[in-house]
Amino acid sequence: MKLELDTVGIIHTPYKEKFAIPRQPGLVSAAKAKLILSPPYDEADALRGIEQFSHVWLIFTFHKTMDKGWNPTVRPPRLGGNERLGVFATRSTFRPNPLGLSVAKLDSITIKNNQCILNLSGIDLVDGTPILDIKPYVPYADSLPDAQAGYATDAPIADMPVEFTDEALTQLSAQRKKHPELQIFIAQVLAQDPRPAYKKNKTARQEYGVKLYDFNVRWAVENNITTVFSIMKTVAKAVTESESSND
């Protein structure tokens, strides 16, 4: 049986690439996002009553990896990437149908100029993710305190110490008016220690970079301490005639 699904909206998040996205929602509370509904679903009536709920479920597509197909077994990061489990026993992106499920805190709703926007936080989705459906989170049914979680019994430990150099603090200060929580957000993301599992036991200095919001964030890890040394605005790429020919 084949199904055709419509995208009800596109979510805009600070995560411009897969690297450094938290592995589950809610781990980085300072991650803010805007879900902009698409026509014909961008009607205020479609959101009537949702403001009564603190959280919402988002059903989305793994659009960045859907072209890679699926695998019957995968290596969950929580097991260090060394053990294979069945795809249906994991939340891997490489699924028979590239569908994901995520919960987000509903901070507010904006309806302006015929545009409906859900303002969310605690998000774990890459920027531009297509959203297929939105459902209210119902605590009595969706939160099961006696449930068992197999190999993922507890939240990942996010205790990597994160420091900022004087130069990075100066760069943050220049952005404080537009991004008042930028330092908190970066610290929460990097406290998750997004390095590949095979590099986490190394003590020699390692340098990394990631795009968050419209910044290139550079940091180093040495002796299990993360030091952010650069937070630079990204340079917008000019669109050439050949790049825009498919519009």
UniProtKB/TrEMBL annotation:
Pfam families: TrmO_C (PF18389), TrmO_N (PF01980). Residues 5-146 form the TsaA-like domain. One of its GO terms (molecular function) is RNA binding. The keyword Methyltransferase applies. It comes from the Bacteria. Signal peptide: none annotated. GO terms for biological process: methylation; tRNA processing. It catalyses: N(6)-L-threonylcarbamoyladenosine(37) in tRNA + S-adenosyl-L-methionine = N(6)-methyl,N(6)-L-threonylcarbamoyladenosine(37) in tRNA + S-adenosyl-L-homocysteine + H(+). Keywords: Methyltransferase, RNA-binding, S-adenosyl-L-methionine, Transferase, tRNA processing. The keyword tRNA processing applies. Homodimer. NCBIfam families: tRNA_TsaA. Belongs to the tRNA methyltransferase O family. This is tRNA (adenine(37)-N6)-methyltransferase.
